[in-house]
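User: Hi! I'm working on a homework problem where we have to compare a predicted structure to a textbook description. Could you give me the structure for the chain below?
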Amino acid sequence: VIKKQTETVESLSRELKERQAEVDKLMQREQISPARKERGGLLPPLSQSSPTADEDPQGQRSFESLHKQLRSRDAKIAKQSERLKTLTEMLECRDQQLDQLQITRRGDEHRTEEKV
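Assistant: Happy to help. Predicted structure tokens:
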């Protein structure tokens, strides 16, 4: 059980790092303008009207699709982070239980030695 939990934590950590690398690559490709940085968002709002959006419905659909993918990935990362947090808490609890077990065993061994 412990081995499986450890493998799961490692797998989730690896996937989280991969997702972070993807986000970093996207951020580097975007070259965010100062105006966008001031707004605080990575991407402009979908409702923003621009001349190219009216002229190119295909581009608008692609843009909306990218927004949808980004939200989906964010949701997945959030779920994975929550699972990772839960597994970490479980591992910490297990470590505490193992420590208590070792202390108890040492106490039992010590009492057994005193009797002999």
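For your comparison, note the following. The chain has a mean pLDDT of 78. The chain has one domain: 2-38+57-115. Good luck with the assignment!
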